[in-house]
Amino acid sequence: MSEVIEMIMILIIVTLCFLMIPFNLQPNSVIEARKKFDTFIKLYDKPYRYNVREYDHRFQIFRVSLNKIASLNAHRVENDTAIYGITQYADLTDQEFLRLHLADLKHETTPGTANNRGVSVLDKFIIESKSAEMKDDIIFSRAKRDLKILDYLPKVVDWRDKGVVAPVRSQGSCGACWAISVVDTITSISAIKRQQNFSELCLDQVINCAGNGNFGCEGGDTCRLLEWLKEEKVKLNTLKQCEALDTSKNGPNCTFQQASNGEYLSLNQFSCVSLVDREHLMLRYLATHGPIVAAVNAASWKYYLGGVIQYHCEEAYEDLNHAVEIVGYNLESQIPYYLVKNSWGPRFGDRGYIKIQVGKNLCGIANRVSFIELV
Description:
The chain has 2 domains: 27-41 and 48-74; 116-374, Cysteine proteinases (Cathepsin B, Chain A, Alpha-Beta Complex). By secondary structure, it is of the alpha+beta class. The chain has helices at 2-25, 29-43, 52-73, 94-101, 121-129, 177-194, 203-209, 222-231, 239-244, 279-288; strands at 83-84, 156-158, 267-270, 292-296, 304-306, 308-309, 322-330, 337-341, 353-357, 369-370, 372-374. Keywords: Disulfide bond, Hydrolase, Membrane, Protease, Thiol protease, Transmembrane, Transmembrane helix, Zymogen.
């Protein structure tokens, strides 16, 4: 009898051991996170691989990012909705991300005198936009309206298909989204007007030379840049002309000469308007004229991989921190969207592009819009 009881006990113990095996085989979350982190370091060639202290610091931030990514994706309700994941910024805190990659559109101050502490560029723009001189150029719409889709507009517009959109740039550590968005849009409008494929233009000429409250890689303002281009009647060099110029002796100083007459089109007119609740005007211009410049709040793009942004993107005017080129739209998609060209390199997002839902001023995309006309 005792042998039977002993056998039963052995069977119970063995059974319990097998029941415990699945739990023991469950991957440890820290180990899995570390595997992902090591892959991340290699993929993006992070410099702290053998720096124990920095490695551990960045790993802790990376683990926080994994939790945030899971939270963002928990709100997905449609297949076309934006999906979030590990990007090259997953080892940065939110504060670091904002400071390093989204501080260039709102430069802190313009140079002041001993008795003047300086004026915020953004604040100055708001003041000027309400002045009598600019009332005809700035549209402030307060009434809430449903998006008007004009019947004659094509349902899909993608200027990349016409060969007039330059490749996605990577601004790196240079805070020049304000210059990139404008120069690339001018590139597109010029190609459309000339009925030819794009010719890349000299970005350095703008970054190094633009005045009117712009500060090169330290930041600038799209509206002020357009104003400077028009007032100075600037003709940009092509990229090939730019590369042929020797600027090494003068470092980042402006040594560029304007392109000769006839080689390139100059700015004729531009707008810097709020089209909140009037996004149909953005669609109309995209369909009939070409790409446009927009200021946005890109704080939530940190983990963006693809799909259409519908949530997690604040629209307040005071939160605008980045500038982009909008190169088209798609109204046939399950979620109608703008096709937005970013400047964080082709490895970010959807080959460097972002899709943002039309009609809701998501990411503040309709707060400051610039249409450009060349002559």
